[in-house]
Design goal:
Strand content of chain A: 25-35%
Number of domains of chain B: 1
Order of helices and strands of chain B: HEHEHEHEHHH
Strand order of the largest sheet of chain B: 1-2-3-4
Helix content of chain B: 25-40%
Helix content of chain A: 10-25%
CATH superfamily of chain A: NADH:ubiquinone oxidoreductase Nqo5 subunit
Shape of chain A: globular
Radius of gyration of chain B: 21 Å
Structural class of chain A: alpha+beta
Largest sheet of chain A: 5 strands, mixed
CATH topology of chain A: Beta Polymerase, domain 2
CATH class of chain A: Alpha Beta
Structural class of chain B: alpha/beta
CATH topology of chain B: Rossmann fold
Largest interface: A-B, 23 and 12 residues
Number of helices of chain B: 7
Largest sheet of chain B: 4 strands, parallel
Strand order of the largest sheet of chain A: 1-2-5-4-3
Oligomer: heterodimer
Order of helices and strands of chain A: HEEHEEEEHEEEEHE
CATH architecture of chain A: 2-Layer Sandwich
Distance between the termini of chain A: 49 Å
Amino acid sequence: MTRDELLDSLGKSFADKLQHRAEFRGETSFTIATGDLRDIAKFCRDELSFDYLLDITSIDNFGDEPRFQVVYHLYSMPHGIHLRFNLRLSEEFGAVDTVSDIWPTANWHEREIYDMMGIKFNGHPDLRRILMWDGYPFFPLRKDFPLAGLASEMPDVAFTKVTPLEGGPFVTIPSTAGSKDREPRARPREL
Amino acid sequence: MAETRATAYDSKIEGNVIFTRFDAALNWVRKNSLWPMPMGLACCAIELMATAASRFDISRFGAEVMRFSPRQCDVMIVAGTVTYKMALAVKRIYEQMPEPKWVIAMGACASTGGMYRSYAVLQGIDQLLPVDVYISGCPPRPEALLAGLMKLQDKISRDRAFRNQKPELAEKLEEALT
């Protein structure tokens, strides 16, 4: 099957559920509603041979509504085709259905998103933090989490302190200048 | 006839007797047989392995016996980035090491947190453990680790080993001698 045939097949079955289609460098992304995720995921795996879930990522558009975005990157091994699904969800809603029973690899990806962003996954078999420890009170990749971190304390388990930034953050500015000009320097936050 | 005592040169033992201070002997023994606890947490551990391997050969300085049980170690080489999640485990392993014990903070991360100014990384292992030697570099070359080890040996050789280990006995002896 070619890419167009696969996408046509998807379009026929879920015509009213694919909200927005974007093309970039020969890869297709659809925006879908959170409630339709599992149906579409099952169809993609069983009927369209998207047997490989490359990654699940999450984006925090702090200040916008809905705030969060969850992105599913699918790949079809037999046909060599990428497909992407975008979910948008607000902070109050804050939960997506799990796909860990459809693609087992989603188990840890969903745990990572829960750990870093605080997005919950309904029906996940073991939704614990994966990088930080159980009981850590913050979600570090949210945009309202300060770069220097926040102090936390769990006696005999772990702790964190606010990091001294010493005039930093040390950032580089992308340009075609020489490496001496591009090297990371402490820059005021206004820049 | 007066009783005589043999005070002549005893060729059997005389050549094998060395006079020294007790501390100096103890420190000499300790510093030339440092058993490291390889606390390898990141890329510095690769350089630590290179230091132990044949090209650089840490056994020239008596520190080749890497032990993976803290109970058999003298010096903990913290090689790599210490995250907060790992920090208390590092401290616990340090506490399981028998006295006397020393700590080498190898590389920028273990010394100060290095480039990781982050919510997840402890900004220097010296916030938890008493560090004896800091080694700069990211990661340090094996020569730097060897130089750090030699610095630690110098430090050990200046140690007041007997007084630190047996303070009561040392005081009693000093009283008896004065």
